[in-house]
Specification:
heterodimer, A: six-stranded antiparallel sheet, four-stranded antiparallel sheet, about 0% helix, B: mainly beta, 2 domains, about 10% helix, about 30% strand
Chain lengths: ~100, ~325
């Protein structure tokens, strides 16, 4: 399991059957800063979505980059990606970075 | 073909085609994972296409009441001159532009993170514009002059609203970059993620005092005031209990607690970012007892034993 700022990445066995490929490599846009957590290149990796969940498929080592965080290199595999959460008494929110 | 009443074909994994010139009053096609296009001549009162892999809809599609494309994350374009009562594009993350000549009464586009702006010509008549979390939109269109409800919360690129805009019911401004309102919006009912607040709390949080936060009798409003005041500043001014302390790759971590009258205690994890060194204060459930338990909860794990990151940057 990796933590890239407020973004969590964990290896999973396979992509969900109905996952759909995305044309971009953005994992999460920083809502406050406008920065993004993203794949450095789409040559060997792709972003997939399935009912609101986010996945990354990597066929050769690929870096996750962001303007403010040191890069993380993901080895080949399939990963689930999600954001950290913050508690409020009314609701649980994703963190705004 | 004419279908009176409701035709529900949702969650049909093999449905990939519908007949041409179909008229149906209520047509539900949610979660049809193979439906990549719609037929020519489709006419509906209500059409729901949630979470389908459509990339567009036909130019001759006619929907009079409600067109729901929630979660269509492959949708990249809509036809010019699209006219419908209520258009729902919630979470259409690949959509970069709305069609020219768009004509709607209600427009819901929350979470359309790729949308960069509004068409040059268009109309949203009298109803609601919900654009929560449209982080790339920098301004509202000049043709939008009158709307009942306007939610621009999370639109971090918005720094000003157009002079002449009127909002008759409420305006939600949480997490925008607005610092004031135009004269045409003076006295508007302001909200912060649904909680009614004053213009001062919204735009001049530096004037909020610790005592004012503690004295606010309405728990929801107090939570917003606390958030505007800043958890980090608040902890500097009150006598917080250190529940637990340790270190992680970002440096020292502290789990801090402040009791609040008539409300659950404020419990926050104070952490540092391993890359930038910046300090953050993240609110966690009040039952947390250790920094690791709180960090695991923040990462999405209710059981702290499940949380063991190998790299943190």
């Amino acid at each position: 399991m990796w933590r890239h700022g407020d973004v969590m990445i964990a290896a999973v066995e396979t992509l969900p059957e109905q996952a759909r490929p995305q044309a971009h490599g953005v994992l999460v846009y920083g809502e406050v800063t406008g920065h993004s957590h993203r794949l450095e290149s789409l040559e060997n990796a792709s972003v997939w979505t399935d009912r609101g969940e986010l996945f990354v498929q990597v066929t050769a080592p690929t870096r996750i980059i962001h303007e403010e965080h040191l890069p993380i290199t993901l080895p080949p595999g399939t990963y689930r990606v999600w954001q950290q959460r913050e508690y409020t008494p009314e609701a649980i929110r994703t963190i705004l970075d | 073909m004419l279908v009176e009443g409701r035709l529900d074909l949702s969650q049909q994994p093999t449905l990939f085609q519908l007949p041409e010139n179909l008229t149906a009053r209520h047509l539900i096609l949610d979660d049809c994972a193979a439906l990549r296009s719609l037929p020519a001549g489709l006419r509906c009162y209500e059409l729901s296409l949630q979470s389908t892999p459509l990339t567009t809809v036909p130019a001759d599609l006619y929907v009079s009441y409600r067109l729901d494309l929630t979660g269509c994350d492959m949708l990249v374009a809509l036809p010019e001159g699209l006219k419908v009562g209520s258009l729902i594009l919630r979470g259409c993350t690949a959509l970069q532009a709305l069609p020219e000549g768009l004509d709607v009464k209600f427009l819901d586009i929350p979470g359309c993170v790729s949308l960069r702006g509004f068409p040059v010509q268009g109309s949203i008549k009298m109803g609601r514009l919900n654009m929560r979390g449209c982080i790339q939109i920098r301004e509202l269109p000049p043709w939008l002059t009158q709307v009942a409800q306007l939610d621009i919360s999370g639109c971090t690129g918005i720094t000003r609203l157009p002079e002449g805009l009127h909002v008759s019911s409420w305006l939600d401004v949480a997490d925008t970059s607005l610092q004031s309102l135009p004269a045409s919006l003076k006295g508007v009912h302001l909200r912060w993620r649904g909680v009614q607040i004053s213009e001062r709390v919204a735009f001049h949080p530096e004037t909020i005092t610790v005592q004012e936060v503690l004295d606010e009798p309405n728990a929801e409003r107090r939570r917003v005031m606390l958030e505007r005041f800043g958890y980090d500043r608040f902890f500097e001014h009150v006598n917080a209990t250190v529940v637990h302390a340790d270190t992680d790759p970002g440096g020292e971590r502290r789990l801090l607690c402040v009791p609040l009258a008539g409300d659950e205690p404020l419990v926050c994890l104070a952490v540092g970012c391993p890359s930038t060194g910046r300090r953050y204060m993240i609110r966690v459930p009040p039952a947390m007892r250790t920094c690791h338990q709180a960090a695991a909860w923040i990462a999405g794990f209710d059981n702290p034993d499940d949380y063991h990151p190998i790299v943190e940057t």
